[in-house]
Amino acid sequence: MKKMLETLIKKELNISFCESCTGGYLASLLTDSDNSSKVINESYVTYSDDSKTKILRVDSKLIQEKSSISFEVCEAMVKGLKEITKADICIATTGVAGNEAVIFKDLVLEAGLVYIGFNVLDQFLVIEKNFKSPNKFIFKQKVADFIEDKVLQMLSRKS
C-alpha cells in the first residue's frame, strides 16, 4: 500500500474504507505508514449486517435477499461510504475470508470469495474475485495488493 499512499499524498487525495472480510486490515496497512494522516479520511469495520445497515445505510432487505456477501451489498456499501464520508476514494470489502464456504439460502459462497467496491474520483466499480488462501492473513494481503493495483490503475486513467 506504500505506492498508493505516496500517490494519494502527491495528488492530495483522501481515502475511506468500509471493511467486512478484511476487518480493518486495509486501514491498518495505511496507518502503519508515516504521513498516513494526510490521506486517511474515515474507516469503518462493518463486519455485522447490523453495522452495514446502521453505519452505511445498506437496506436490510437487500442483505436478506442477496446475502451480505454479494455484488449488490458491496455496491450499496461503497455508495453509502461515499455518501457519509465524501472521500475522494472509497473502498468497500465483503467476502469469505476463512477456509470454509458459507451457505446462504441455496447458494454456496466459496472460501476466498470477495467483492470489492471502488469509488475513485467518481469512477464506480465493483469487482468479484476469489483469493482462496491457506489463512486469513494471506487472504487479506492478496485483497490489499489487488486494491492498491486497481486504485493506482483507476487514478492513472484520471490523469
Chain-wise SSE layout:
Elements: H1 2-11, E1 15-19, H2 25-31, E2 40-45, H3 49-56, H4 60-66, H5 71-85, E3 89-95, E4 102-104, E5 107-109, E6 113-120, E7 123-130, H6 136-158
Parallel strand pairs: 1-2, 1-3
Antiparallel strand pairs: 3-6, 4-5, 6-7
Describe this structure in words.
By secondary structure, the chain is of the alpha/beta class. The protein has a single domain, classed as Maf protein (Alpha-Beta Complex), CATH 3.90.950. It has a 5-stranded mixed β-sheet with strand order 2-1-3-6-7, with helices on both faces. It has helices spanning 2-11, 25-31, 49-56, 60-66, 71-85, 136-158, and strands at residues 15-19, 40-45, 89-95, 102-104, 107-109, 113-120, 123-130. α2 links the parallel β1 and β2 (40-45).
Helix and strand pattern: HEHEHHHEEEEEH
What structural category arises from helix and sheet content? alpha/beta
Low-confidence stretches: none
Give the assembly state of these chains: single chain
Tally the helices: 6
Radius of gyration: 15 Å
Mean pLDDT: 94
How are the strands of the biggest sheet laid out side by side? 2-1-3-6-7
- Count of domain modules: 1
Strand content: 25-35%
CATH structural architecture: Alpha-Beta Complex
In whole angstroms, the N-to-C terminal distance is: 20 Å
User: Would you count the extended β strands for me?
Assistant: 7
The residue fraction in helices comes out at 40-55%
- Specify the biggest β-sheet: 5 strands, mixed
CATH homologous superfamily caption: CinA-like
Write the CATH fold name.
Maf protein
How would the global form be characterised? globular
